[in-house]
Amino acid sequence: MTVLLRTRVTSVGPEVADLAEAGVVILFADGSPPELAEVSVLHQTEQRPSDGAPAKGASITLGPVSASITAVGASAWSKVLEMGHVVISFNGAAEAERPGEICASPVDPEALVAALKTGTIITIAA
Predict the structure, then answer these.
(1) Residue 43 annotated among the catalytic residues of the structure
(2) How far apart are CA 87 and CA 118, in angstroms?
(3) Could you say which of 28, 37, 43, 102 is catalytic?
(4) 3 state DSSP class of 14
(5) For 64-98, how does the pLDDT look when each residue is reduced to its tens digit (9 = 90+)?
(6) Quick one: CA dihedral 75, 80, 82, 83, positive or negative?
């Protein structure tokens, strides 16, 4: 297994739980603008993102919650590399609706909300 990204949650915005219940998680590197921090999971990279984007079938874990990547938007990984930002939609879509989105298999919304807390490790691996 090759780790493509390993990051640690540093802060969770007050509106994150509502989005996570709908299967959406927005990641932003520490230092994002305050208006974005309200809806974002802020994080600090522990292992720099790989140059290559994850492929369909790669795994994504958020603490104890695990899913398989089903689609990667055209600019999603470049945004991860540039500013630590990506929208993860746990909708199982075969194609990303937005260029900055990574889609993954559906997960239990309650488990996802519970996993999104300070200190949680998020990993994308192939």
Answers:
(1) yes
(2) 18
(3) 43
(4) coil
(5) 999 999 999 999 999 999 989 999 999 999 999 99
(6) positive
